[in-house]
Specification:
By secondary structure, the chain is an alpha+beta fold. The protein contains 14 helices and 9 strands. The protein has a 4-stranded antiparallel β-sheet, covered by helices on one side. Strands 2-1-9 form a 3-stranded antiparallel β-sheet. The N terminus is likely disordered.
Amino acid sequence: MNALSLSCLLLGAATVGFAQALPKTPEELAAAKRWTELNVDRITGNANGQPITLSDLRRQLEPFVNEIRRENKSDAEFNKVIEAYSNETLKQTTDRQLVIAEFKTSTGKVPTSYIDGDIEETIRRDYGGDRNRFVASLRGQGLTPLSYRKLIEDRIIFEYMVAQVRRTALEVGPGKLYAYYDTHKEEFTRKESINLRQITLIQGASETTAEAKARAEAWAAALRDPAQIPATLTRFKVTARKPLTAPGFAEVAEAISTDDFAKQGGDTGWKPLEEINERVVSVVRKLRDGEVSEALQFDIPGSATMWFILKREGFKTAGTDTLDDPKVRQFVEDRVRALAMKEATEKWLAELRAKHYVEYR
């Protein structure tokens, strides 16, 4: 079966699902009619004697159809994406069947306890331990407990076999690290950057601007002299999310800051200076690592007045990071290892395709 006819058959399933979600236009009624005409299941592939049907592919594509429709407004765009998805899904399904066939001919059988344990964990986690709800959910998906058990067994086999292949690529020697680094050196070129922690304070509804400013300045003073922090927490009746034995900037940020960085102790990570507000840059350039700024007031039209208290954690001049930096070395190791695992898996799958019988119809 060619790609166009396959995608058209799959499009039938996709269109009817979409048509059920919205009022039926003439075009959608025509699509539903086409689905009725094409709704005859058939074999579209064969992997080592294991048939792959259109219904197998539809089941895997169905969760993505509405999203594909939203992102691709015209029928031509929609059909093109569905065609690509269907061809990739057919290839992946075929590869899975080959992996399972290889396991059964070379390794043996999955212990029943592994499958039982997986199913029991699903019932406990997703259905509150209610087996009847679990079975009803399977029925709604057109599955039986036996067919679902087969799906779980196949998934365990596939994950086990792929993990075995990837394990051979876990060792990363220095030569590979330096080869990757030299080839991708532009990835490690950095601009002038700074690492900051910040606390954001907003004028309260019952506060005057002067009162809010005094509060922000009191916090800034306490953070520059940590001995004052406990008394300042008491003064402003701050209840921390967790007990603070020796509170510092990070702990105070988590307790009082109103921005998205509060949960990580105000840590904004490394950022190029060119991406940071010029006023902030002028302040943090004068700080040394570990020093805390005064409260910086920002008046934003239409919004409450805000104050920022900043702590400089680190500064990097423009240049190139090297493998001597532990973080850079770890990044390169992870990247090289991921590429090696991908290459090993692709080579292994190619060998399986050559070893076993594969047919696309």
